[in-house]
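Item description
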Amino acid sequence: MKFLRFEIIHINGSEYEARYYKNARDNGGGNYSVEISINCNDKIILDDLSLEKLEWKTYRVLYYALFSRQLINSIGTGRKEIAYEQDKAII
C-alpha cells in the first residue's frame, strides 16, 4: 500500500482528516483507498477502482455518516428536530 496524500475535508464548519492510498495488484493494476478520521475512535475506510470516483464517494459517504451520527446522538438527548444543511430529519 502506497501513501498518496493527506487532505483536510471541511463539512459544516468541522474538519476531518483523509489519507489516500494506492493498493497495487499482481496484474499491474491497482485500486485506491481512503481512511477518514471522524474522531480518534471513529474512522471510515472506503475503496474504489479510480481515484476520481473515490474522491466523489468520500464526500458523499462522509456527509451522510455525519448526519446519521448526529441523528442517533439526538435521540439520546431528547432533541426533536435536526437540521443538517439541506437535509432535515424529524424524530
